[in-house]
């Protein structure tokens, strides 16, 4: 019963400081006209403003016969061109919706690709963010409903890109880019560097992420079995490396712990990028949790444990729609308390869970509302 109340509590007061109740009209993927297979994202970032330009190629499979139009979403940026299988296509872009007229019809099971060229200055209201902080920094934040503010996509949680995402991101060569998946290389030309990242696992659009700044790196390793290794890499400002050995001292223990409870770590690598300023305390981008700089400086182990547990609960297994996000957050809130128990004992776990229960009851008495709205 206590756990049930704690999970409900997450609907109102998520551990990371997120609002977690998002009514939305949704439909089953089987009723949608196509299925996203893969995103290929090419971007150029000047790193002196919120301006970005590039193209996204989306591999799709038709879910119906005689498919002649598809819908995508892009908000606050300009569509410059659309091609379908390399052929220019007509389209409309009204508010957030792009309607693409396919050059010919596709039948159920047919695969095709849509390439959208786009550019513009992001609003700064989620999506793509840029700040002149201690160092210039840009990063993406798609949770919730904001992935369409930085790249054209079909932004529904239930339509994961079956074969993942790939990035080619070009920045001035003094900057470093980190992103979802595995780093595959860096090519420098005429003062610019293009970073190549790739992730081959199913992924929901809001979990796709990159960040760029004057980063240095700090690494550790997780060994899931003899002869196997997974790199854990952190991206942080050079001035903050002094905090890294202490702040990240427990990360490998966390991953061993959750691996023992929930099964194998589900992806090819793990890491964290440190950002400031940041709307949240942390965000569970797939393979690359984003954390507030204050979590680094303050050694917020349990915030980091919360985000890591989302790799299983939220990323590998993703709720159907934002109405169900209490499942993601409820499991992760329970998981960070389990890690607290591992470090500080059972009474610390009980005290934390009871405290969260009391917070929920107080909040519900002050502002009653349901945790789910179909």
TrEMBL record:
InterPro entries attached to this UniProt entry: Aminopeptidase_N-like_N, Aminopeptidase_N-like_N_sf, M1_LTA4H, Peptidase_M1, Peptidase_M1_dom, Peptidase_M4/M1_CTD_sf
Principal location class: cytoplasm
Peptidase M1 membrane alanine aminopeptidase domain span: 251-354
Catalytic reactions on record: Release of an N-terminal amino acid, Xaa-|-Yaa- from a peptide, amide or arylamide. Xaa is preferably Ala, but may be most amino acids including Pro (slow action). When a terminal hydrophobic residue is followed by a prolyl residue, the two may be released as an intact Xaa-Pro dipeptide
Positions bound to Zn(2+): 306, 310, 329
Domain Aminopeptidase N-like N-terminal: 37-207
GO biological process, one term: proteolysis
GO cellular component labels: cytoplasm
Note on how the cofactor is bound: Binds 1 zinc ion per subunit.
EC number(s) from the headed UniProt entry: 3.4.11.2
GO molecular function term, any single one: zinc ion binding
Keywords: Cytoplasm, Hydrolase, Metal-binding, Metalloprotease, Protease, Zinc
Enzyme class at the top of the EC tree: hydrolase
Cell compartments where the protein resides: Cytoplasm
Protein name: Aminopeptidase N
Annotated source species: candidate division WOR-3 bacterium
């Amino acid at each position: 019963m206590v756990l049930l109340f704690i999970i409900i509590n997450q609907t109102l007061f998520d551990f990371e400081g997120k609002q977690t109740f998002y009514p939305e009209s949704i439909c089953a993927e089987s009723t949608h006209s196509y299925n996203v297979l893969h995103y290929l994202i090419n971007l150029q970032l000047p790193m002196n403003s919120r301006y970005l330009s590039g193209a996204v190629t989306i591999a799709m499979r038709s879910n119906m016969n005689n498919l002649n139009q598809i819908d995508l979403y892009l908000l606050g940026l300009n569509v410059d061109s659309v091609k379908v299988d390399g052929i220019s296509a007509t389209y409309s872009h009204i508010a957030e919706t792009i309607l693409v007229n396919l050059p010919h019809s596709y039948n159920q099971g047919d695969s095709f690709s849509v390439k959208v060229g786009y550019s513009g200055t992001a609003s700064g209201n989620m999506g793509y963010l840029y700040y002149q902080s201690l160092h210039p920094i840009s990063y993406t934040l798609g949770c919730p409903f904001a992935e369409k503010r930085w790249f054209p996509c079909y932004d529904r949680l239930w339509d994961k890109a079956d074969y993942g995402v790939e990035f080619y991101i070009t920045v001035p060569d003094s900057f470093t880019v980190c992103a979802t998946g595995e780093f595959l290389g860096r090519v420098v030309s005429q003062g610019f560097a293009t970073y190549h990242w790739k992730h081959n696992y199913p992924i929901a659009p809001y979990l796709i992420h990159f960040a760029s700044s004057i980063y240095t790196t700090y690494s550790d390793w997780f060994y899931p079995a003899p002869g196997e290794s997974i790199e854990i890499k952190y991206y942080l400002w050079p001035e903050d490396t002094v905090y890294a050995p202490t702040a990240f001292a427990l990360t490998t223990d966390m991953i061993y712990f959750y691996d023992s409870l929930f099964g194998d770590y589900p992806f090819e690598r793990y890491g964290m990028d440190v950002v400031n300023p940041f709307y949240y305390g942390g965000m569970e981008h797939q393979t690359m949790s984003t954390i507030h700089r204050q979590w680094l400086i303050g050694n917020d182990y349990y915030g980091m444990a919360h985000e890591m547990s989302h790799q299983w609960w939220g990323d590998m297994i993703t709720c159907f729609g934002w109405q169900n996000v209490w499942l993601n957050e409820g499991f992760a809130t329970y998981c960070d308390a389990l890690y607290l128990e591992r470090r500080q004992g059972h009474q610390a776990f009980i005290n934390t869970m009871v405290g969260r229960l009391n917070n929920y009851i107080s909040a519900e008495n002050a502002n009653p509302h349901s945790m789910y709205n179909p």
